[in-house]
Amino acid sequence: MNLSYDYYRVFYYVARFGNITQAANALFCNQPNVTRTIKLLEQGLGCTLLVRSNRGVTLTPEGELLLSHVAPAMEHLES
User: Fold this and answer.
1) Fewest C-beta in 10 Å: which of 18, 35, 36, 54?
2) What is the largest CA-CA distance in the chain?
3) Residue 62 and residue 49: Cα distance in Å, rounded?
């Protein structure tokens, strides 16, 4: 499966904020689209990246590993 840059961008914002709604606001989109994008990324990678709760999200070990690769690239692109 070919995963879009946007999937990783959405993942980065969700991980950075620890909250899907806040990430959606920062990305100027709605919460259902962010949730759908994360689910598609998880399906594409074949693993769970986030644990969702009523207090936000936390990264799984796989999510932490992905963030360690995505964060430097996103920070470089944003600068």
Assistant:
1) 54
2) 33
3) 6
Sign of CA dihedral 22, 27, 29, 33: negative
Contact (Cβ atoms closer than 8 angstroms) between residue 45 and residue 55: no
Q: How is residue 19 written in tokens?
A: 């909250």
Give the tokens for residue 68: 């360690």
Separation between Cα atoms, residue 71 and residue 15, nearest integer Å: 9
Please count the residues of the chain: 79
Q: 32-70 pLDDT, tens per residue?
A: 999 999 999 999 999 999 999 988 999 999 999 999 999
**pLDDT, tens digit, 9 for 90 and up, residues 8-41:** 999 999 999 999 999 999 999 999 999 999 999 9
